[in-house]
Design a protein that fits this description.
The protein is an all-alpha fold. It folds into four domains: 209 residues, Up-down Bundle (Growth Hormone, Chain: A), CATH 1.20.1250; 52 residues, no CATH class; 217 residues, Growth Hormone, Chain: A (Up-down Bundle), CATH 1.20.1250.20; 100 residues, no CATH class. The longest helix is centred in the C-terminal third of the chain and has 35 residues. The chain is globular and about 75 Å long. The termini are far apart. InterPro entries: MFS, MFS_dom, MFS_spinster-like, MFS_trans_sf. Belongs to the major facilitator superfamily. Spinster (TC 2.A.1.49) family.
Length: 695
């Protein structure tokens, strides 16, 4: 089957004006789902082999933290530019170039030269860190585009399922990376590569072979006792011998420490065919804004035709063509959700979000929760092996089971409980849901505190499972509240702000902050916390410092409980205020219709006569301000909406709109000027009420 991606693409898959073939779309979704998993493969693999990377590259705790934080930092840095690239250029080019770069940097990560300097600070260390940062940068375009692609191309009946699968690809990829990397490293420990080593006379005693010399070329691990007894593997000289066996890899930790590279090789080998698939798929399957472009052209055609019909008074300028859109561009439309917020200044949107305290505190609470989860995922394997002395294979198996089941069960249970109790919609629903979150937060803290002070794997792993379960139960409700607490029109912007906060204060900080603290403490005490050899035993001070780092991660749950508590308090106050306002509903201003008012005939688009409106008193203004929540902007009183909307227009024009002009979206200059003055200067409903009254 011939598939071309050139400019004159005439692929039989898609012809001009032909709908995309469903089987091709489904196949491409499978490819993108695999891509989503593989992009997160190394995020799970790095924590699994952190012990090996530490030895091979002489990584300090701070550098280990950077290794986990750099992918998130890179993605965060590139995201604003990625959005612009996807808007300006063919998405296929952006995705394919990003994928090729990601594959290249993954391969370079695996081929980074190990550090042979006992003091560290080798070129290979900085190559390793640079590759992690570049991997995060190269993922930004792909991670941003994939949900957009699903929303555009998914089969309508499967759109929600596909979006859910796409989101599930992230934790699934992390888990597979953790499993494969840990398994290959463990297999390498049990069965290193072929050894080509001649036993030298000064090591005869260490090997327990007396005067027997010679070579053991080509022997496997199982037969190495022909040259050196297996029981002698723990002695320093034997470690030196094994290092020579692995001379092609030049791994200071021994043969099996190089096995972490194989998991990255596997990731690269799987990414290469996905790169080819991306390149050869027709570009028509990547363009998602074609319909938007056509609709904009159609709008301009219709506007030009209307202008011609009205008298052909010359070529309509851009402002006249878009007069309908300009007429609707007021903060009323943004707050009501009938218009997107693309025409509101960024800082105005930021101020609106900042004044919504429920959103602010809930976002900070989720960031603290992600800090704990990311820190546990990154540091717990090394903590189990080095501090609690759990065999690597047992630590790998135990945490795999815990991390695969705890959060999943928690998310399902938390979502079900919130829905069962009435959901999070409305002020009462938000207040009720924040109390549920507080309950889960208290339970999580009750298990996090003892987990920070136990040194038995049988006690620690159940506690971590419960911590991840309660944390997972918080996520669905908290994410829903973050969306519900802001005006519908700026929810996309609020989602972007939330992701920035989560990446900086959550995922990145959870890996970086404990490492930096451990580094500072080690330097202050003069304690060596980095291994130089695989068989080296950490000093007691090093184990104490690693324990400190893990306690920071676990006890960070206190900050999550505090921020969620502030969110619950703000939500409760908002609900209480709404209840009190409901009792004074009769005081809310309504349109006054005097019995003797002259009635005007119904004219489409005409405003009511001036005699039908009354001046608001200060008391009425205060009652209206109390009736509408300043923080959630949930305008729930229809009469107030209509009163203020019409009064804002009426009092600024000083006249009536002509029905003919209204039909075609044209308005008087006075009204245009009034809307321009009104637009962008109002950030709260209460301010809006007062400003309208002044006018």
């Amino acid at each position: 089957m011939e598939i071309s991606s050139g400019e004159g693409d005439t692929s039989p898959l898609v012809k001009d004006n032909e709908e995309p073939k469903i089987w091709v779309v489904k196949l491409l979704f499978c490819v993108l789902f695999l891509l989503e998993m593989l992009l997160n493969f190394d995020s799970g693999g790095t924590p699994a082999v952190l012990e090996f990377l530490t030895v091979d590259f002489r990584l300090s705790p701070g550098q280990q933290g950077l290794l986990g934080a750099f992918p998130y930092i890179g993605t965060l840095f590139m995201s604003p530019f990625a959005g612009q690239l996807l808007s300006r250029y063919n998405p296929k080019i952006c995705v394919c170039v990003s994928l090729v770069l990601n594959t290249f940097f993954c391969a370079l990560f695996a081929f980074a030269p190990v550090c042979t300097n006992p003091e560290g600070n080798c070129a290979g260390t900085y190559i390793l860190l640079g590759c992690k940062l570049a991997i995060g940068i190269s993922q930004a375009c792909i991670l941003i585009y994939l949900p957009v692609w699903v929303d555009e191309f998914a089969v309508p009946s499967l759109r929600t399922l596909w979006m859910s699968l796409l989101q599930a690809g992230v934790p699934l990829g992390v888990m597979l990376g953790y499993l494969f990397s840990g398994y290959l490293a463990e297999q390498g420990k049990m069965n290193p590569p072929f050894c080509h080593k001649e036993v030298e006379s000064e090591f005869y005693d260490c090997c327990g072979l007396g005067g027997f010399g010679g070579s053991c070329e080509g022997t496997k691990w199982a037969n190495i006792e022909q040259c050196c007894g297996v029981e002698a593997l723990t002695c320093g000289e034997k470690t030196w011998n094994l290092e020579q066996c692995c001379k092609p890899f030049n791994c200071p930790g021994g043969c099996w420490y190089c096995k972490w590279k194989y998991a990255i090789f596997l990731q690269v080998c799987l990414l290469v065919p996905l790169c080819l698939a991306c390149i050869f798929v027709p570009k028509r399957y990547f363009i998602t804004n074609k319909s938007n472009l056509l609709s904009q052209k159609e709008i301009e055609k219709q506007a030009a035709a209307k202008a011609k019909k009205m008298g052909n008074r010359g070529t309509p300028i851009k402002s006249e063509i878009n007069s309908e859109r300009e007429r609707m561009d007021s903060l009323w439309d943004y707050i009501e959700g009938g218009k997107d917020a693309s025409n509101i200044k960024i800082w105005t949107q930021v101020r609106i979000l900042w004044r919504s305290r429920v959103f602010v505190w809930t976002s900070l609470g989720l960031s603290a929760l992600y800090f704990v989860v990311a820190g546990i995922q990154f540091w717990v394997t090394q903590y189990l092996v080095e501090v609690i002395d759990v065999p690597y294979s047992e630590a790998l198996s135990a945490f795999t089971v815990v991390s695969a089941t705890g959060p999943v069960f928690g998310v399902v249970f938390g979502g079900w409980l919130v829905d069962y109790l009435g959901g999070y919609k409305g002020k009462q629903g938000v207040a009720r849901t924040t109390k549920i979150i507080i309950t889960f937060g208290i339970l999580a803290l009750l298990v996090a505190f003892p987990a920070a002070f136990v040194f038995s794997v049988k006690a620690l792993m159940p506690l971590i499972w419960l911590l991840l379960f309660f944390g997972g139960a918080i996520v669905p409700a908290a994410v829903g509240i973050c969306l519900s607490a802001v005006p519908p029109s700026i929810r996309p912007f609020s989602s972007s702000v939330s992701m920035v906060v989560y990446n900086i204060l959550g995922h990145s900080a959870g890996t970086l902050v404990p490492g930096v603290v451990m580094d500072i403490r080690a330097k202050a005490e003069g304690c060596k916390i980095t291994k130089s050899e695989a068989s080296e035993e950490l000093e007691p001070c090093a184990k104490a410092i690693m324990t400190l780092g893990m306690r920071i991660v676990l006890l960070w749950a206190f900050s999550a409980l505090f921020t969620f508590g502030k969110s619950a308090w703000k939500a409760h106050k908002s609900w209480t205020k709404a209840k009190e306002a409901g009792e004074r509903a009769s005081a809310v201003t309504n349109v006054v219709q005097p019995a003797t008012s002259p009635k005007r005939g119904a004219v489409p688009g005409a405003l009511p006569p001036r005699t039908e409106w009354t001046k608001l008193t200060k008391e009425e203004i205060d009652n209206m301000a109390n009736a509408i929540d300043d923080e959630t902007y949930d305008v729930g009183v229809d009469d107030v909406e209509e009163e203020l909307k019409r009064r804002a227009t009426y009092m600024n024009t000083g006249g009536m709109m002509n029905a003919a002009h209204t039909e075609f979206g044209e308005i008087f200059p006075k009204l245009k000027k009034a809307q321009e003055n009104f637009e962008g200067k109002v950030v709260t409903v209460a301010d809006k009420i007062r400003r309208v009254n002044k006018k």
